[in-house]
């Protein structure tokens, strides 16, 4: 599946930010009203730890919606690595807007940079192999596209976006359809041209999926030896995706079995936000 592009996310970013500001500011920032409306200020945002940056467009949109007079000047771009204590961007404009937008802007930047940083760490571990690391649907509700874009900024890749753009036939689907061949045949009839992926748990099921003509076959919890055998049996007929039991210790060994993809839920679901700080000067 193709990776998300920032150019495709304009409406999504607007909606994400609108929801975040409504949640945080609601009927108005009463604390910011302590500051005279005409007061101008400057601020700089630094990272307290090394990170791969993502989320610049969401930050821009926060201040655009709050007060277009705020000027945002970036010193890094999405996908770039920042060092500890580096200034990421500067702000100049009405003090009220800078303070009201701080939390929402940093929430987006911290989360998405956390995803991008995790992905960069994992991508670096398989450098030199041909494997692609894929995300999953284990994302925060309402922020799936944002997180999946962050995955690409960290050097990993997008799997299907949701339940609508590709088939992923698992154990329960297979049982309900009466077998792998029947499930694949039904998928081809329902949505011709959509990718059809089948999850298998052993080499016998792999052969059934190959015979059925699956486009992608997910090898669920197979050990490295069985994955190498699967690569040999497959002989390039389908794309092979490893899933389950993937962590920083096992990742390189799985990549070296010759599978095409490794899907990793932790790229988006267990992410630690990057520690950022805003320093204001009036």
Automatic annotation (TrEMBL):
Keywords: Glycosyltransferase, Transferase. Residues 29-113 form the Quinolinate phosphoribosyl transferase N-terminal domain. Pfam families: QRPTase_C, QRPTase_N. GO terms for molecular function: nicotinate-nucleotide diphosphorylase (carboxylating) activity. Residues 115-279 form the Quinolinate phosphoribosyl transferase C-terminal domain. NCBIfam families: nadC (TIGR00078). Involved in the catabolism of quinolinic acid (QA). Belongs to the NadC/ModD family. This is Quinolinate phosphoribosyltransferase [decarboxylating]. It comes from Geopseudomonas aromaticivorans.
């Amino acid at each position: 599946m193709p990776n998300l592009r920032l150019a495709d996310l304009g409406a999504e970013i607007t909606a994400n930010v609108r929801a975040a500001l409504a949640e945080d500011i609601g009927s108005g920032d009463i604390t910011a009203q302590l500051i005279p409306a005409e007061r101008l200020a400057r601020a700089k945002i630094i990272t307290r730890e090394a990170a791969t940056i993502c989320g610049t467009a969401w930050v821009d949109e926060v201040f655009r919606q709050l007060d277009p007079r705020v000027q945002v000047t970036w010193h890094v771009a999405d996908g770039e690595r920042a060092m500890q204590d580096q200034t990421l961007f500067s702000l100049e404009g009405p003090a009220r807007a800078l303070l009201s937008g701080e939390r929402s802007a940093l929430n987006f930047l911290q989360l998405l940079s956390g995803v991008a940083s995790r992905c960069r760490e994992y991508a670096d571990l398989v450098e030199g192999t041909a494997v692609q690391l894929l995300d999953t649907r284990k994302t925060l509700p309402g922020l799936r596209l944002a997180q999946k874009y962050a995955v690409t900024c960290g050097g990993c890749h997008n799997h299907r976006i949701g339940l609508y753009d590709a088939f992923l036939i698992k154990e329960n689907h297979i049982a309900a359809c009466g077998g792998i061949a029947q499930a694949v045949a039904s998928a081809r009839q329902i949505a011709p041209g959509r990718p059809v992926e089948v999850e298998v748990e052993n080499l016998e099921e792999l052969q059934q999926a190959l015979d059925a003509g699956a486009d992608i076959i997910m090898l669920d919890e197979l050990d490295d030896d069985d994955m190498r055998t699967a690569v040999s049996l497959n002989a390039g007929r389908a794309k092979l995706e490893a899933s389950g039991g993937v962590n920083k210790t096992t990742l390189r060994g799985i990549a070296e079995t010759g599978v095409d993809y490794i899907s990793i839920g932790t790229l988006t679901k267990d992410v630690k936000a990057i520690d950022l700080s805003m320093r204001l000067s009036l």
